[in-house]
Amino acid sequence: HAASSFSLPPNIISSRRRRRRVNNNNNNSSSLSNNKNNSIEKTTLKSSIIITTRASSSSDKMTSKQTTIGFLGAGIMAVPMALNLINNGNHNLIVWNRTASACDPLVKAGATLAKTAQEVCEKADVMYVMVSTPEATLEVATLAKDGVSDGKGYVDCSTVDRHTAQKVSEMITSKGGRYLEGPVSGSKAPAENGQLIFLCAGSESLFKEINADDANQLNKMGKASFFLGEEVGAGANMKLIVNSCMGSIMASFAESIALCEDASLSKQDLLDVLALGAINVPMFGMKGPGMIASDKNTKFAPAFPLKHQQKDMRLAVQLADELGRELPVAAAANEMYKRARRDGHDDEDFAAVLHAVRRE
Fold it and tell me: Are 69 and 92 in contact, with CB atoms under 8 Å apart?
């Protein structure tokens, strides 16, 4: 692949599979771009972001460093993330979930099923956690912590509040482990395609380790990784802010679709107009066709369950309250998701917020 023509900000690393390094002091990358069998990694200054694009390589598994990785959780996000580590990362994977049968797809792919969360931590070099709620996050950490020992890494990708992240960090570091919060932006399809965005804070050494050239960990599960600092809670806060924005946009989008119905306007025309304007976002294209084709009896297949979106809205509003910030738009959107939950749409995709604004 030829070198990209755009210039990157000084805190970004752009990397690709089958790549060569370009020294920071060498600005003449044109001579490297002619090699079709290599991609370019351009590094400037100290990075806090790693952006990964991928070109398939049959040699990845032979050249990468083999590591024993633990994965705690086997839900809608955890399973595809763990499968990417198994299938693309040359790792031995040991897994555990509170409901053991949920790990069946991972065991079938080659993972080892542990009897306890503690066993995972005892046998793995690095542990990843992806569960659904702050309560589940604390429960898993409590069950796992006695298996943590000096230097081991514990990466929690669950979406929680900063207080929960800090409690888990204390549990892990008290045992000598290194803790990194790494909540992800992205839902089921990005998880399956290795296109998640990691929002990390905590142990910088652990962050660098799992992003090393031969680690094949975060870069196999995601397209970008942000290191937001060593203060635990920064990742949780950023994730809640991002999801609050997403939830508010979806709620407004649902209102617009419902208003089109009331005004006897074409909902397809609405999508087309939005797609051509400055306010277009990819979510409209992904969710819009199914939403405009739906009726009051439609069940939206979950990519990101509505109950989790409402949980994130609640935690974002809670964060704002702690910081003395009013969030009138997010607070109103939260009420829409709560209404949808009361009407029985918990386990549907968060696009089901449309049901909260439709006329019966």
Answer: yes
pLDDT at 51: 62
Tell me, what's the pLDDT at 35? Answer: 40
Strand partners, 41: 21
Average pLDDT (230-256) is 98
pLDDT higher for 167 or 57? Answer: 167
Render pLDDT for 130-169 as a digit per residue (tens, 0 to 9): 999 999 999 999 999 999 999 999 999 999 999 999 999 9
Closest to 343 measured CA to CA, from 308, 306, 291, 312: 306
Question: pTM of the prediction?
Answer: 0.83
Measured CA to CA, the distance from residue 120 to residue 223 in angstroms comes to 26
Burial class (CB in 10 A: 0-12, 13-18, 19+), 348: buried
- At which residue do the structure tokens 């956690």 appear? 129
Integer distance in angstroms from the first to the last C-alpha of the chain? 54
Are 236 and 162 within 8 A, CB to CB? yes
As a whole number of angstroms, the distance between CA 287 and CA 34 comes to 40
What proportions of the chain, in percent to the nearest 5, are helix, strand and coil?
45, 15, 40
Q: Which residues contact 149 (CB under 8 A, 6 or more apart)?
A: 122, 175, 176, 177
pLDDT tops 60 at residue 88: yes
For residue 170, count other CB atoms closer than 10 A to its CB: 14
Mean pLDDT of the chain: 86
Q: How far apart are CA 11 and CA 328, in angstroms?
A: 34
Residue pair 306/296 in contact by the 8 Å Cβ criterion: no
| Token pair belonging to 163 | 């207080």
Distance CA 141, CA 174 (A): 12
CB atoms within 10 A of CB 195: 16
The yes-or-no answer on residue 46 being catalytic is no
**Own/partner pairs for 343-346, CB < 8 Å, 24+ apart?**
345/300, 345/306, 346/305, 346/306, 346/307
- Residue of 239, 267, 287, 311 marked catalytic: 239
The string of DSSP letters for 146-186 reads GG--TT-EEEE-S---HHHHHHHHHHHHTTT-EEEE--EE-
Can you read off the two tokens belonging to residue 248? 């508010």
Whether the CB-CB separation of 113 and 96 falls below 8 Å is answered with: yes
